[in-house]
């Protein structure tokens, strides 16, 4: 099927209008008319991912994070971005990114459901009542430590970073997959007793803990990797004729 046919199915479920103004989503390289029978899905368009997409014969690469955010003045092998783009084009691979539109219309509810949050609402509204992140009630009252163990179990994580008292009991939680530093105060304002997100810096962590809200930093990749499996299931349901490959789930760093 044509690349455009696949993109229309994706955008019907995850409309681009829900992307934040600063974001760069959509077809970022390649042809909409490209015939596609094989798709590769990953969180980021890294060197390893571009190589894997080419090796499996994919004609379409789908990622969550856009490789291109700002303007590009040249496309050469002098830069990592230029070199990746050249390899994509040389291998005739169309490249599509779905970032904050997926955060709003897919990732937020998926992550909240994985923690069994109840009576949820958007953490940060973007459009039409839809938004990034969710805040709601945990299935039961639990300690911050128990909540952290739940996060590790549900998202398959080896460890998480915690700000706040481990034995404090919590029941109202907020979750923001990816980098949630900018929404920490909003989570506190909406009554969250524990905030689950990634990329929390030292000062935000200690300040929120002093305000009475614990933070569980599960890492940027730690929660957002659920995009890969979710999009795999979406394509298998809506485009069953396609062969779908996915990047392996593994942390992009090591802790010694």
From TrEMBL:
Q: Which residues form the signal peptide?
A: none
- Name the family the entry cites: Belongs to the GTP cyclohydrolase I type 2/NIF3 family.
Q: Which InterPro entries match?
A: DUF34/NIF3, DUF34/NIF3_sf
What top-level branch of life does the organism fall under?
Answer: Bacteria
Which keywords does this chain's UniProt record carry?
Metal-binding
Which NCBIfam families did the record assign? YbgI_SA1388
Q: Does the keyword Zinc apply?
A: no
Concerning SUPFAM superfamilies, the annotation shows: NIF3 (NGG1p interacting factor 3)-like
- The molecule here is called GTP cyclohydrolase 1 type 2 homolog
What Pfam families does the entry give?
DUF34_NIF3
Keyword Metal-binding belongs to the record: yes
């Amino acid at each position: 099927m044509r690349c455009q046919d696949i993109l229309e199915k994706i955008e019907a479920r995850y409309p681009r209008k829900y992307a934040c103004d600063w974001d760069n989503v959509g077809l970022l390289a390649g042809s909409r008319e490209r015939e596609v029978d094989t798709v590769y899905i990953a969180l980021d368009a890294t060197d390893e991912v571009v190589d894997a997409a080419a090796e499996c014969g994919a004609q379409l690469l789908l990622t969550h994070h856009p490789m291109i955010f700002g303007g590009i003045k040249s496309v050469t092998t002098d830069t990592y971005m230029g070199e990746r783009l050249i390899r994509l084009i040389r291998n005739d691979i169309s490249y599509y990114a779905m970032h904050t539109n997926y955060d709003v219309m897919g990732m937020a509810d998926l992550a909240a459901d994985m923690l069994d949050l109840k009576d949820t609402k958007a953490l940060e509204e973007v459009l039409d009542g839809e938004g990034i992140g969710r805040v709601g009630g945990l299935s039961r009252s639990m300690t911050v430590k128990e909540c952290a163990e739940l996060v590790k179990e549900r998202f398959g994580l080896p460890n998480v970073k915690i700000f706040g008292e481990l034995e404090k009991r919590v029941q109202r939680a907020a979750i923001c997959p990816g980098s949630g530093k900018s929404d920490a105060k909003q989570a506190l304002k909406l009554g969250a007793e524990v905030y689950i997100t990634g990329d929390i810096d030292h000062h935000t962590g200690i300040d929120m803990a002093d305000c009475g809200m614990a933070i569980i930093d599960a890492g940027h990749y730690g929660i957002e990797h659920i995009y890969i499996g979710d999009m795999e299931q979406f394509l298998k349901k809506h485009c069953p004729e396609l062969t779908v490959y996915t990047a392996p789930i593994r942390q992009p760093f090591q802790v010694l």
